[in-house]
Specification:
about 260 residues; alpha+beta; 2,3-Dihydroxybiphenyl 1,2-Dioxygenase, domain 1; eight-stranded mixed beta sheet; globular; Glyas_Fos-R_dOase_dom
Length: about 260
């Protein structure tokens, strides 16, 4: 089945040192990386067990000087990129890259929501199904978590754009609810209120690993920083939130085997 409007279909790391990033994530998650065919910007593909799960791109010229920092971004499938981009801007979002065609790949645009959280929207050139998000496989994204200043406004915004719905919620005291979001009958992630002393509003993507303790050791041993965890979450698995050596925030989720 082809991906639906509102599905997460790709994940991409923007970084200042692509070679170092490829080595780091290879050691931590087990990804292999290769150059994207036909790319003139040094774009690389992350894959595992023969399946492509994400991309890696060095900063475009001038981006770092303009304030861009290493970051993971998600791609959300839409039926019509131009119409979706115009709708996001009309509802208070910002367009950073106008709708653009990538021959043989699809049409995409880079935007941010009204609270400044960046994301891509995309319509693929073929009707294949992306499995970059797959909660049953290691090395794939297993969870999409939005940390933002106004969770209710964010939920309303994304529901109107992508059809996401509220699922269950876990109370988090003064921080409010950890609100699960569902799409197409499955839970794909959650929205939470950002802590005042935490990072700015952003998406954090959790990638599946076979052993959370082994992965945590690989993060620390290869120059990354663990900010939280390993901590147990519902389902009998554990998570960590970390940043890579360039400072891009990401999450890992998996079982504890020792």
């Amino acid at each position: 089945m082809a991906n639906r409007h509102g599905d997460f279909i790709w994940y991409e790391l923007l970084t200042r040192d692509a070679d170092a990033a490829a080595r780091f994530y290879g050691a931590v998650i087990g990804w292999q990386s290769r150059s994207a065919e036909g790319s003139d910007r040094g774009y690389r593909i992350f894959g595992i067990d023969g399946t492509d799960v994400g991309g890696l791109m060095p900063f475009p010229p001038g981006a770092e000087g303009a304030g861009m920092r290493p970051i993971w971004l998600g791609y959300v499938a839409v039926e019509n990129v131009d119409a979706a981009a115009a709708d996001i801007v009309r509802d208070g979002g910002t367009q950073h890259m106008a709708p653009t065609d990538i021959p043989g790949v699809g049409r995409f645009a880079m935007l941010s929501d009204p609270q400044g959280v960046m994301l891509y929207i995309m319509r693929g050139a073929v009707e294949g199904t992306s499995t970059a998000f797959d909660q049953n496989k290691f090395g794939h994204c297993n969870w999409n978590e939005l940390s933002t200043g106004d969770p209710q406004a964010a939920l309303a915004f994304y529901r109107a754009r992508f059809g996401w719905e509220k699922g269950d919620a876990m109370p988090m005291g003064e921080m409010g609810d950890y609100q699960f979001i569902t799409h197409g009958g499955r839970t794909i992630g959650a929205v939470m209120r950002r802590t005042p002393d935490g990072p700015p509003p952003l998406w954090t993507f959790y990638f599946g690993v076979e052993d959370i303790d082994v992965a945590a050791q690989a993060v620390s041993g290869n120059g990354g920083t663990i900010h939280y965890g390993p901590a147990e979450v519902p389902g009998g698995v554990f998570i960590i939130v970390a940043s890579d050596p360039q400072g891009a925030l990401f999450g890992l989720v998996g079982p504890r085997k020792s």
